[in-house]
Amino acid sequence: MLAYVIRRIIWSIPVLLLLAFAIFALMRAIPGGPFDFAGDKSLPKSVVQNLERRHHLDWPLGWQFSSYVLGDDITGAICQETSFLPGCEAVQASAGLGVSQGLIRGDLGMALKLRGRTVNDLVKESFPISFQLGMIALSLSVFIGLPTGVLAALKQNTWVDYSSSFVAVLGLSIPPLVLGPLLIWIFPLTLGRLFPDLFGWIPIATWGAKPPFFLGIFPSSFGAGFWSHAILPATALGLAFSAAIARLTRASLLQVIREDYIRTARAKGLREQMVVLRHALKNSLIPVITVLGPLLVAVVTGTFVVEQIFGIPGMGKHFVNSIGNRDYPIITGVTLIYATLLVLANLAVDIIYGWLDPRIRYS
Asked: What's the N-to-C CA distance of the chain in angstroms?
């Protein structure tokens, strides 16, 4: 197993580099640049040229990517040894500006439109908030979706099954874009004014945890103030996922409980509770775990819609704003974080497979 994990991690490195290069090329192929406008005014051509030179945007694409991955110093040294390659004159002229320390040193670059801010600073401030929101939403979706799916499968074709299926379809049909404002209107604005003692503690927006964070990612306190801010956005984000988990759990469990080994377990006299929990449910979780891998990344990195509705300063806001601003380092850095989390989540899913089903082995 250890060899398999190490091999997967090693193979993920070129995948992430190829992804970074693809983002590099695609964003620079889009018309317009990060310094074409400052607010509503266009900048003079000389100012744009100086800014592009400062951030190495006048370099050929290959040298820009080399600077992003290896750093200015290593790229400049390579260019000195290979001065015959195209674009080396521009590299040698501005490599000493020291814009990038390189991805290999953990530097995601300098933000182009946010003066004096690095991508590392933005991620350090916003990712813990998106992580906290995502983990609460994911826990809520599993806590609701898993028991609902199991109950619907065990009570197939009864009112319990029909009610669960109706609620699941309803949850999938209402996106967070609609559910978020609806929750704000129902609880803080309506019930909060009618019954301030019961619902007045629920705020409309913002987040209840602020830096510094414990271990860099967890809130320093899980008090009432934190949960009062988290309940509405986590509900808006987690209900749709809980509906998807419930439907998948029901379908998977219905298939498993019809297998021969389940009938054999019942014939041996095992209690129904033991048959369901120890034999049927464990094997039926494999499709659910498969979905939870990408789902974990989706909720942990946050969604721009929920963060925008509730005024949460998460990472999704920076990502979407950077696309309109053509802020290449932020786009590339956040995409790499998403991709890294997805690789790790899929690796964790594969490892859990072996625990759920002993027949699965990795070589």
From this structure: 7
